[in-house]
Amino acid sequence: MSDSRLDRLVQAALDSRKSAYAPFSKFLVGAAIEDAQGRIHTGCNIENASYGLTVCAERTAVLKAVSEGVREFVRIAVAAETDPLTPPCGACRQVLAEFCDDLEIVMVNPAGKTESVRLKDLLPRAFRASFR
Ligand code: THU
Question: Best of 56, 60, 122 to mutate for ligand 1, by most ligand atoms within 8 A of CB?
């Protein structure tokens, strides 16, 4: 995977962060997931006055892609203005694990700090349906 493709993914996550709807927490998050065809699907967090209905940026991105028929993913970039960097929450890890045996997760912040981790390390022994 070339660096320019990684740069593009990181930039898409940073750009998507600007669309975050987070009037309650004011914590803006962007995500960009790359599929097996090299296409990028973006997402941001979308909060709700009924707080528990909030959807994280990572789930917005992956669910948008799945809803368009995509099933295979290569990596995801997650952007938040934090240091240390922000990894996907537990719920998002589980949703990503539904579609990815493993996945590179690139955490970034607007200052340009990046760090890569693997879904398998963040969510070892993920629950997957054993009945299908
Ligand atoms: N959030 C994300 O979008 N992704 C994460 O990885 C962590 C948390 C959102 C949910 C909520 O809108 C805000 O950040 C504060 O938790």
Answer: 56
